[in-house]
Amino acid sequence: MNWNGTVSLLIACLEFLLLFKLIVFTEKNKLNKIAIVIIALLAIYQSLEFLICGIELQNAFFPFLAFIIISFLPPLNLLLVINLKPDLKLKLLRFIIFLPALLFIIYYSFVIPQFAVTRCTVLYASYNYPLGDLYGFFYYLPILISIILLIRLIKNEVDKKNKLVGKVLLSGSIFISLPVIVGFTLMFAGSYSLISAMESVMCKFAFVYALCLSFVCLYNSPFKDERNYFKYLFSNK
């Protein structure tokens, strides 16, 4: 039996369950909508990775499609953080944070045959793709900016609700950054195995971030549980 991609399938199922709960039981305000889209993309990516490794759909188009999905995750998360505390100075960022992802997708659409799955395991997949170092820089940059903005928000925020949301998101952001720290440490020691699978490993760690986003959505809704939700549904609001 082929067990490759098993963890991806498990995480995809859990993320789809989270997604269903959030769609049904949370208010659809701007912040929550962004968080729900992030969780949806994470679930779709894990499903694709299962198809690639578990079902062995390893045509170059499938890893290309997986990279399209994950390319939008860091800028979407940065957009979420920006919307936590709207700042006139950050408004310009909203118009440019998706530009690198779009440019990579346009370029990659012309070189799809260069995408390849180099290794599949139960836990993760490794990919070969063009401009890996440059892609990695623009992939991690929005995550780093998000962490800096969250630290600033926690330090300066007076609203307890926003401060708690900021702390939850910061904890999740630091957690998903652990593979990057370990990967670069191993790279300097001469091992490139984790770096080649970095996006896949980070998306596994991002399940914890999906839980953080779920908390934010529930906390950012006028109803905190199912009972209050149905009360909200049938109220005069």
Shape: globular
Q: Tally of extended strands? A: 2
Strand content: under 5%
Side by side, the strands of the main sheet go 1-2
Number of helices: 11
State the low-pLDDT regions, or none: none
Structural class call reads mainly alpha
Q: Please provide the ordered H/E string of secondary-structure elements.
A: HHHHHHEEHHHHH
List keywords for this structure.
237 residues, two-stranded antiparallel sheet, 4% strand
Topology:
Layout: H1 6-25, H2 30-53, H3 61-71, H4 73-84, H5 93-96, H6 99-108, E1 116-120, E2 125-128, H7 132-156, H8 160-188, H9 193-196, H10 198-219, H11 226-233
Helix pairs in contact: 1-2, 1-10, 2-3, 2-4, 2-10, 3-6, 4-7, 7-8, 8-10
Quick overview of this protein structure:
This protein is mainly alpha-helical and 237 residues long.
What does this entry look like structurally?
The protein is mainly α and 237 residues long. 71% of the residues lie in helices and 4% in strands. It has helices spanning 6-25, 30-53, 61-71, 73-84, 93-96, 99-108, 132-156, 160-188, 193-196, 198-219, 226-233, and strands at residues 116-120, 125-128. It has a two-stranded antiparallel sheet with strand order 1-2. Helix 2 (30-53) runs antiparallel to helix 3. The chain is globular.
